[in-house]
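Supplementary Methods, section 5.1.

A reviewer requested that the exact input to the structure prediction be made available. We therefore reproduce it here, unchanged from the version used in the analyses.
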Amino acid sequence: MKHAAEKVVSAYATLDTPLGALLLGGDGSDVLLIGFPEGPNAVSPREGWVYDPGLYREARRQLADSFTGRRHGFDFPMRMIGTAFQKMVWEALLAIPFGVTRTYGAIAAEIGRPSAVRAVGAANGANPLPIVVPCHRLVSSTGGLIKFGGGLAAKRFLLDLENQARTS
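The structure derived from this sequence is encoded token-by-token as follows.
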């Protein structure tokens, strides 16, 4: 189990995307988890999770729109499950503008914990709502791509998509 939210998920739906079929898991009303089909944090359904293709329609619509470049933010029913520190990091990620990247060190400084760069990295890796909480916008201190739950190819795809949409 990579995300604390996996313990609370009871139902899921999927969305076909250019990155493969994303899994949207939740409690039947709020989305609690978005899982990639591949990569270090790949998510597959757990025993007891009920598949319902009609769930999370608004979330699936908004995510589909984001993959066309038409949507730059999200407002569907969701809930972040994590520690207070993780939530503080995730809120800082939400403040990163569309099409812009930040370093782990910049986020650590922004939340008032400049020496907590590694902890920011760990919180970023535990993000249960990737794409929505834009953990793909974090890069190394040299600007290079490192670590992404959906794999580096997915991270590059998302950053390129944002850059294309921002400059169009």
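The beta strands are 11-17, 20-26, 31-35, 50-51, 102-103, 138-139. These observations are discussed further in the main text.
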